[in-house]
Amino acid sequence: MLARLALSVTTVTTVAATGCAWRYRQRTLTDPLTGLANRAALETEFRRRRRSGPVAVAIGDMNGFKAFNDTYGHRFGDQVLIEVARVLARETNRGELPVRLHGDEFAVLLPGVTDQGTAEHRVRQLQSAIARITTIDGQPVEVSMALGVMTMPAESADLSRLLGSADDRMYGDKHAARSSIEIAIPQSQ
């Protein structure tokens, strides 16, 4: 009888400890605001995925995000980030990993992408999906994200270099978006 009781207590304790450990691990790999994976999850998944083939990483940040916070407040800005995260989670394909790095900066791990053209096409699809966000909490909005992407073969793939190169490309995309906006300049009389 005592042996059964001890076994039951041990089993319950083990199950509870395993559940707590799993919840703790999930918390350490998840962004608390958006529910997306975080940088630690990106690093873990990158190491796992690069063993099986080429990888690409897209990195991006919101265009004009500060205006949401300044105009409508930080809670509204948080809602923008949450909605962008929902779109990224919904639009990523099986095996792709959407990540919130920090602030208004996101990344997407694109495993198995072998060439830069395919990676850039995939990034444009994600940008289009984000641009389709037109209202948040009943408020009309224009949401866009500058994204850059870089691919590397598995044998030379390094996350830090991929993120750095993708970041450089993202700033090129951001600069191109800014220069394509027409600015009305009053003419002198």
Automatic annotation (TrEMBL):
Q: Which SMART domains match?
A: GGDEF
The record's GO molecular-function terms, alphabetically, read: diguanylate cyclase activity
Q: Which residues form the signal peptide?
A: none
**GGDEF domain spans which residues?**
53-186
Q: Which PROSITE patterns match?
A: GGDEF, PROKAR_LIPOPROTEIN
Q: Identify the Gene3D superfamilies for this entry.
A: 3.30.70.270
Q: Which InterPro entries match?
A: Diguanylate_Cyclase (IPR050469), GGDEF_dom (IPR000160), Nucleotide_cyclase (IPR029787), Rev_trsase/Diguanyl_cyclase (IPR043128)
Pfam families in the record, alphabetically? GGDEF (PF00990)
Question: What name does the UniProt record give this protein?
Answer: GGDEF domain-containing protein
